[in-house]
Amino acid sequence: MSSIKPQFPHRVGAAVAAVAAIAAVAVSALTIGAGVSGAAGAAQPRTLRVAYTAFDLSQPMGAQLLYHRLQQAASNVCGSLDRADIGAYLRWQHCYDGTLQRAVLQIDAPQLLAVYHIDAAHARSAG
Known about the structure:
The chain is mainly α. It is built from four helices and two strands, in the order αββααα. The chain has a two-stranded antiparallel sheet with strand order 1-2. Helix 2 (60-77) crosses helix 3 (86-107) and helix 2 (60-77) crosses helix 4 (110-126). It is globular.
């Protein structure tokens, strides 16, 4: 599973630790489409750091801007999309959905979660 891994010493105060954790979130995927594999053939997680300190996540606009960044990062982490191969497309979609969901849940901001739920409901009704 993916997790935020703060990059600061263990003895740093809680306030500084919180600021460092908010500075960036690691978006990762456990299953990537074809191409990313280790020596034993197991999928290697890819991560992409998404900075969001400039966004006010208590406001809808800040949450929407971060959500768009997270969508782009999830798409990049999951690799290229091959719509001609239904199996590859389904693997990519599974990777993207899971990666985006984990990133939103890691950040744990109510406005961002609301944007995610609205987008997920829209996607279900459109598909």
